[in-house]
Amino acid sequence: RATAPASADARAAAARDERELEQSSRVLALLNGHCYSAWHARKRLLLAPSVLVALDAPPSGASCPRDADLPAPRVPAADRSERALDGFSRVVSLRGELALSALVLRRFAAAPDAWAHRRWLLSRAGAGPPSRAPAASAGDPPPSPATRASTPALADMDAELERCDAACAAKRANYYAAQQRACLLYTSDAADEEDS
After folding, report:
1. For 38-61, how does the pLDDT look when each residue is reduced to its tens digit (9 = 90+)?
2. Is 132 exposed, middle or buried (0-12, 13-18, 19+ CB in 10 A)?
3. Three-class SS state of 138
4. How far apart are CA 135 and CA 84, in angstroms?
5. What's the DSSP call for residue 79?
6. With contact defined as beta carbons under 8 Å apart, do 84 and 53 qualify?
7. What is the pTM (predicted TM-score) of this model?
8. Where is 162: in which H helix or E strand?
9. Lowest-pLDDT range, 7-11, 86-90, 148-152?
C-alpha cells in the first residue's frame, strides 16, 4: 500500500510537469516563433501517451487546459463518449494547435520552425502535405492522399492558402510560406488525380 501513494504522487508530478512544459512552450513560441525547442516540446506533448489528440474541440466537460482559450469547432457526437477518454489524462485539439501556429506566424511570418510544425500538424490531421518526420508509431502510417481528401480539414485549404499569401505579403521572398503553398497545391493536385 505504500507504493500506491508514491505512484499517485509520481503521476501528479508528471501531469504538473507536462502542464508547465505546455504553458512555457506556448509562451516561448509566442515570444519567439523561431525557437525550435518550443516547437519540439509541443510536438513531444502531442505525442505523449497520456494525451488524446482529436481533430476538433474536446468533449464538453473534459479537462483541457491546453485549448481552454482557443476557439475550435464542435465535436461530433461519436467523439463525446466517456469511453473515448479512458486512459488519457487530457484531450488536445489539433485545430487549437493550428490556431496557435497561425497566431505565431502572423508575427513571425518567415519562422521556419513554425512552418515545419504547422506542416506536421496538418499531416497529423490528414489534410496537409505529408510530413518528413516519421509517424508516431510503427503501426500508425501517415494518411494517404485519398484519406486526406476525405477529411474535413481539407475544406480549410483556401484559408491555408490565404495564410501563405498573407505571410508572403508580410515578408517579401518568404521561402517557407512559398514552400508551404507549393506543398498544399501539390497535395491538392495528388488528391484530385486519385479522385479521377
Report:
1. 999 999 988 988 777 877 755 544
2. exposed
3. coil
4. 22
5. G
6. no
7. 0.68
8. helix 157-170
9. 148-152
